[in-house]
Amino acid sequence: MYKNIRLCISLFPKNIGHICRENHLIPVFHLGRRKNSQHSKERNEANFSEIPIERIRNFSIIAHVDHGKSTLADRLLEFTGAIKSGQNQILDKLQVERERGITVKAQTASLLYKYNGEDYLLNLIDTPGHVDFSNEVSRSLSACQGVILLVDANDGVQAQTVANFYLAFGNDLVIIPVLNKIDLKNAEPERVCNQLQTLFDINPNDVLKISAKLGLGIDDVLKRIVTNLPSPVADKNANFRGLLFDSSYDRYRGALSLIYVQDGSISIGDNIASFHSKKEYEVKTLSLLRPDEVPVDKLVAGQIGLLGCNMRSSKEAHIGDTIYHKNTSVEPLSGFHPSKPMVFAGIYPMDQSQHVNIRSAIEKLTLNDSAVSVEVDTSPALGQGWRLGFLGLLHLEVFTQRLQQEYSMDPIITAPSVTYKIKLKPTKQNMKDDSNVILINNPANFPDHLQIEECFEPMIIGTIITPDKYLGQIISLCMERRGVQKSANNIDNERVILQYELPLCEVVLDFHDALKTISSGYASFDYEDNGYQSSNLVKLAILLNGKLIDELSGIAHITKAQTIGRRMVLKLKEMIPRQLIHIAIQATVNGKVVARENIKPFRKDVTAKLYGGDVTRRMKLLAQQAAGKKKMRMIANISLPRETFIDVLKK
């Protein structure tokens, strides 16, 4: 029998596993491999647990979109032996990330690096670069002592580079500047170094120059991480405190929490409690991410690891919460400010029979993406659903795509809107100013104009970095969107940085696309919240034969209400099917019609059966038809197919 086994190995080395399964010899071939892998795992656990805090480094990679964060993370994993060479996008685990080529979810990996004969534990967090996922960046920085600021040597400093720099600078983190893609023929390292010096006062001699794609200069980055970044400020002997800064959902283990151990240590079997929910749990699993899970028995101060303790829902795994040992007294960690949704959209099931499945899918996704806010909503046309808040339009698109890909859901997504602040006129029953202010993100809840004293809309400060040859077109675009220029400065001889105050509602839909179109893709855009500003807002109501349709109504600035209303009624005229009665589509503002279109009814030829006789017979039949249509128009409801609502709201 053993001769036959050796013969199979020599003849078919690539198909050993297949041959073994057919001959039921799996235990014979895999016994030694399992034993070796178990020894290596035990050796890795021992190495991790024995590394002192002085040799631990926690850091993130921050950059603008497509500047090479994921590629650099791949090379760092490769150079430290965590993965095999030639693998790409290891930390981009979601299907949507691989399809779009962007990072939307921060991922963690623990690396072992030998420097001067000693092992160092490097906890790497790869962060997204798009402005819509800045919440992922801010959460990741809470568990770090330093960052790698990655800049493309070809494109130079972009808008999100500026935003991420000041985010790290505001958290007092050590910043390691790195220029990537120096192997490109159009790379201009000196020009980009001068930009870094002009904007951030970074010495050009301190900037590392690498090519993450070719692996050039990666060893220098690792050495700079070890020598320049500080070790965590932690105490192994204190009572256990851990910061819960991310979470995910596992089908079999429930909610998994990514924690940064600030003080003490945590072991499997410990009883822990949460400051936020006040609930108690037993630690079931602990693991390090390398980048795949490596089970460990213990996590100590300064480490970042994955905790499983039978949490069931997103309400229990509260981002920013402090985890501590039961029956011990500790101070909660400061955590971080929760993100504030900027864009709201309604999500409804195609069929109400799918309501339970979509609700379950949304709960699991919000556990993985804590920046999404969820409120129950109801629509007469679309049924029961939810009003979800997102950080931006790309955030909304990615969330919807994940619902489709990961949970096979195909919901109806309504047109996105923002949150407005309305101050109502005081009444005898309620004279307090504070209680007269309400927040509106659904046009159906907009009060009557006679009750409104003042309206406020959310504003942003937008940062645009562009080549100077597109400056005129970009200024025109910002003025068209009701923008007010705050500043304009030259970065170098070719690039300009602009700051505009813009209404958020003018930005969230298509501003980014329009900016990329007029600048041939060279301009970059980033924005931050700037509070509320008084504005002349009105409800743009859509009426069908005088009946208000709240699902199709919207909120607009008075100067753009007529243009938007005209576009809306033309769209409805194309989509609403003809019926037996005349349909008048009207867009109104404060009771005044600003746009109107008519859909003519089907006309039955009631005189077709006549073949002669007096003309009075024809006139009588036509008069009867006109009277019947008039009566029908008085008592009939317009029957709008559900598909019409879906088509209009999606667009």
TrEMBL record:
The record lists the membrane-crossing segments as none
Q: Identify which top EC class this enzyme belongs to.
A: hydrolase
In the record, what terms sit under GO molecular function? GTP binding; GTPase activity; mitochondrial ribosome binding
Q: Which domain of life is it from?
A: Eukaryota
Residue ranges annotated for the Tr-type G domain, each copy included: 54-233
Give the record's GO CC terms.
mitochondrial inner membrane; mitochondrial matrix
Q: What is this protein called?
A: Translation factor GUF1 homolog, mitochondrial
Q: What is the lineage of its organism?
A: Eukaryota, Metazoa, Ecdysozoa, Arthropoda, Hexapoda
